[in-house]
Design goal:
493 residues, six-stranded mixed β-sheet, 18% strand, binds adenosine-5'-triphosphate, binds magnesium ion
């Protein structure tokens, strides 16, 4: 077996997993940590620093610092200090660091490299990433949607049962965005049935909400100095404050209080988890709605959803899982190493059928090399077998045209499950009872006898088929009871 590398290039962090030729899988460590901050810093000597080095350098000159290059994917170039740098070059700097660390561990270049990307990314964004990987020295980088990698991990590493035809919902709440996807298991691997997300809902936005909340302390001038620094000392304060806010927020997922020092105000504030939850609830409450929407869009019946898998560091906020449970009526799976799921899953999904019980389609093949001047532009990359099918266009990224892959199985249409037929039949019986009352009962009883029927309307919102049947049985019993009483009183009078 040859060595392979899975890379999850994230907004806040980049994680990588390595499979050695003997089959052992491990996380690549960067300065001793499995997470490399995706941050970059453009030095005045033209060198681009990455990770912790970039964060440290930013304390002297934040104008040369970009903490989240992935968020700039559509921008083409970014102004750092006086230099305008292509976004692709920033990606390349991060990926080159991953390459050098993995080669150092392995002693050679990995034979296969799989890079993950958000499922909603279209061909243009995917090419920025793939070209950057090639420029970083990966000869033949393949691409894989992040939720497919997460689904492979859910099945192969965590051992959850997802039968062919069923799906796992991947709820990825990372640093930059929130993404929800329904990933169905097929005979050959996984396919993304529906995907949507919120571009301005990530850990960074929670940090900004905390800063906004603190602004009632001190006056506008002081906050102006902190948030739009002019001198080197103010810039240093600004970066340090941002880091402190993020760390305080993260602590509040583990404990109920955290202290935070606000430099220009020279004041320490006491934050509580309750306060954070009150503050962020309106933001977080948007996520379950998106999850519900992708489940409905996927067209799968409720019982075909095998589970909801929370990934991304911001899913550690306890309120995230609570809201999912409360709004969707099902618990979510959340594990400790949330940030490493996608990189490890990329290896599992791309793995040829073997000991791991996941068969995945081959990742997107590498693009043809750069076009030769004067020749026709290269044909667009072939779409993967797991590309979105009944994809609902999200306003933030136009979806690629539906792929026409002869190998992909035709989409399964979900028929109406048996319990729903039973419930419908019971409702029909109830309607007949009502018609009978109309025929025999005096006018004053009509409204009363229609009550059970009206009460059936809210039932249309019940999403568990057998619960619906149970309610329908109660309805029929109620209707019968009222009818018998009516009949009795009519015959008495
Ligand atoms: N204990 C915690 N509580 C709250 N938030 C946390 C915690 N741990 C990490 N985070 C947040 O998770 C975010 C980073 O998550 P992650 O590394 O999964 O994102 P990413 O993959 O870089 O981003 P994306 O997937 O959006 O591109 C940061 O905003 C970080 O503050
Ligand atoms: Mg991520």
């Amino acid at each position: 077996m040859s060595a392979s590398l899975g890379i999850d290039f994230g907004t806040s962090h980049t994680a990588a997993a390595l499979r050695r030729p003997d089959g052992r899988v491990e996380s690549v460590l960067f300065d001793g940590s499995p997470l490399l901050p995706s941050a970059v810093y453009a030095g005045d000597d033209g060198q681009v620093l990455v990770g912790r080095d970039a964060r440290d350098a930013a304390r002297t000159d934040p104008s040369r610092f970009e903490p989240h290059p992935k968020r700039r994917v559509d921008d083409g170039t970014v102004l750092l200090g006086e230099s305008e740098i292509a976004v692709g070059d920033l990606f390349t700097a991060v990926l080159a660091r991953v390459r050098s660390e993995s080669e150092r561990v392995l002693g050679a270049a990995p034979a296969d490299v799989v890079l993950t990307h958000p499922a909603a990314w279209g061909p243009t964004r995917r090419l920025v990433l793939q070209d950057a990987a090639r420029a970083a020295g990966f000869a033949n980088p393949a691409l894989l949607p992040e939720p497919v990698a997460a689904a492979a991990y859910y099945v192969a590493e965590l051992g959850h049962q997802v039968p062919v035809g069923s799906a796992v919902v991947v709820h990825d709440f990372g640093g930059g965005t929130f993404d929800a996807s329904v990933v169905r298991r097929t005979e050959t691997g996984f396919e993304v049935l529906a995907v949507d997300g919120i571009d301005d809902l990530g850990g960074v936005d929670i940090d900004n909400a905390v800063i906004g909340h603190l602004r009632h302390l001190g006056d506008d001038d002081q906050w102006q100095r902190l948030l739009t620094p002019r001198t080197a000392a103010e810039r240093r304060q600004w970066r340090g404050f941002h880091d402190d806010v993020r760390e305080a927020k993260e602590r509040l997922s583990r404990q109920s209080t955290a202290e935070l020092f606000i430099p220009v105000l020279d004041r320490e504030v006491h934050l509580t988890r309750d306060e954070l939850e009150t503050l962020t609830r309106p933001l977080l409450a948007r996520a379950p709605k998106v999850v519900e929407a992708v489940i409905r869009t996927s067209g799968l019946p409720d019982e075909a959803i095998a589970g909801i898998f929370l990934v991304g560091g911001a899913s550690r906020m306890p309120l995230v899982a609570t809201l999912i449970h409360r709004e969707l009526g099902r618990p979510a799976t959340v594990i400790d190493r949330l940030e490493q799921v996608v990189a490890h899953g990329a290896l599992l999904a791309a793995q040829a059928p073997g000991p791991v019980p996941v068969q995945a389609p081959a990742p997107i093949p590498a693009q043809t090399p750069a076009p030769v001047p004067g020749q026709a532009p290269p044909v667009a990359a072939p779409m993967p077998a797991y590309a979105p099918q009944p994809y609902q266009p999200s306003p933030r990224t136009p979806p690629p045209p539906p792929p026409q892959s002869p190998t992909r199985p035709a989409p399964e249409r979900a028929g109406m499950p048996a319990p729903l037929w039973v419930a419908a039949a019971l409702m029909g019986i109830q309607a007949l009872i009502w018609l009978w009352v109309l025929a025999i009962g005096p006018v004053r009883f009509w409204g009363v006898s229609a009550l059970p029927l009206l009460a059936a309307i809210p039932l249309l919102r019940v999403r568990r088929p057998w619960a619906l049947v149970a309610c329908a049985v109660l309805q029929v019993l109620g209707a019968l009871f009222i009818t018998v009483r009516l009949y009795h009183s009519v015959s008495m009078s």
